[in-house]
Amino acid sequence: MRDALAALAVEPLPERVDLERPARKEHGDWSSNVALATAKKAGRNPRELASQLVDHLNADLPPHVERVEIAGPGFVNFHLAPTWLHDVLSDVVTLGTEGFARSDAGVGHTVNVEFVSANPTGPVHAGHARGAAYGDSVARLLERCGYGVTREFYINDRGVQMQNFGASLAARKKGEEPPEDGYKGQYVTDWAAEMPDDADPVAWGEDRALADQREALAAFNVHFDVWYKELALVDSGAIEETLDELREKGHVFDDDGATWLRSTEFGDDKDRVLVKSDGELTYLAPDIAYHRDKFSRAERLINVWGADHHGYVPRMKAAMQALGHDAGELEVAIVQLVELLKDGEPVKISKRSGNLIELRDIVDEVGADAARLTYLLQSIDSRQTVDLAVVASQGMENPVYYVQMAHARIHGITRKAAEAGFERAPLNTVDLSLLTHERELDVLRSLSELPETVLSACNDRAPHRVTTWVRELAGAFHGFYHDCYVVGEGVSPELTQARLWLVESARVGLAIGLDLLGVSAPEQL
RNA sequence: GCCCUCGUAGCUCAGUCGGAUAGAGCGACCGCCUCCUAAGCGGUAGGCCACAGGUUCGAUUCCUGUCGGGGGCACCA
């Protein structure tokens, strides 16, 4: 393309030539707006330039390109031959679930993804679920793109809430009501009944809560590499070190008997207290020390926070800058809140009464796969409404079912083919050029987009794009399934073989996509 | 009051670096099973991309403002 532009004496040459996938099939497989983008600077007419460009390219077509056309105000559209898609099929099945749609963009780089980080005072609840699905999926995307990834859970086990929790357990054990600002959920009573007489309610309660959280998250297919206790941070002396470092660097001052971080220096609204006038630490001081520790273990940090915490972003970023990091090295993904419905009725959750929906309840009710795919259906930037009855339903209003159906059909075909005596022949003995049906090509077009989808989803921390892609592939496959029989009277053995490989390629694509979402798919529904 | 975020079909939402006639699913309506699961497929209807300016050859996309929904503005964790 650049050569063609140079040959046409375009001056100045564009820095980059963008190719994009047109939204409409008639516009070809690839399209470039380069004539539009450069015409003005070069003092040429866009349409005319595009036309010359097309002539030049058509004179010597690159491999797989069937023809190049001019369209609209000056777009240059490339129409590819089906052979291109047959090569895609070969790539997919040769590279397989391990190798296809993998990127080395992050090789040699480390990222720490911290998410969930629920307080160790009770079970993981519905409010954590979306962030859990999101954080784990982002970690999966990063891994697929070559990054060294740590999944980390921060345990907030220092502070008054632990005393309240311990006191609540102790009270329940004695058959009394918890204190006014204590924890009133049913689980406190249940756990108190398990608690040995000689146990320290605070320490025992923390372990009990963590065990419960770990189990519920595992059932949600989320596993952490590091569970980091705030108390360990306190014991390590890291907080004092951090305060000293900030003071040395001149970002700390004393006022009103308290110690302050001059966070306004780095864009925060106001300066923040690190040590209160009574000598106690605020939550912020250990948090800074914790992030400092994470930076000693990874180049880049991603925090997944609920929308109710977004106000803390500027001060954390300011603190990291005070420690000498670039603001961009700490990313905070803000996950908008989920409104939970049950049969269209809002589920009221009240922390005060302890009346909350546990993650475990959701998994029990709809299954981990359905729950995860549902949470990853939409961008985290939009508020989500989840109706548990819909997620659990086995109907069309449920995208989970649509996707799982495609996967089950793939295995249905494989089973049926085996019954009819068909095993896949080696790929190099199969004539893929028989795959010319528009439905077949649609499946392959969809597969051809997976590598770029994965990379962009990774770079933009947007796993929902994978979900969208998986739904599209499932749609293309359902169309193929309907119109193209793999095994049947009117199908030649050669075509059966080619289609068996097509089915396999769809299976690989679906497997990759679903794995990135942390969703398994049944072979049968 | 200030900050973050969202506003796209009746509903739930996609829409990448600004591109062509704005997409999908559900719901509505009309079709399609002698064969791998009809839990599916095809078609029709349905849009002032909240509104008003600006930048641009070109804006759903970028900028400013207005309106509306959600969240946040502690020497609380």
Structural notes for this entry:
- The longest helix has 25 residues, at 493-517.
- The chain is globular, with a radius of gyration of 28 Å.
- The two termini are 49 Å apart.
- It is built from 20 helices and 15 strands.
- It has 3 domains: 2-80, Gyrase A, domain 2; 86-103 and 395-517, Isoleucyl-tRNA Synthetase, Domain 1 (Orthogonal Bundle); 115-235 and 336-392, HUPs (Rossmann fold, 3-Layer(aba) Sandwich), CATH 3.40.50.
- It is 49% helix and 14% strand.
- The protein is of the alpha/beta class and 525 residues long.
- The strands form 4 sheets. It has a 5-stranded parallel β-sheet, with helices on both faces.
- Helix 17 (438-448) packs parallel to helix 20 and helix 18 (450-459) runs antiparallel to helix 19 (464-483).
- The mean pLDDT is 90.
- It binds one RNA strand of 77 nucleotides through helix 2, strand 9, strand 10, strand 15 and helix 16.
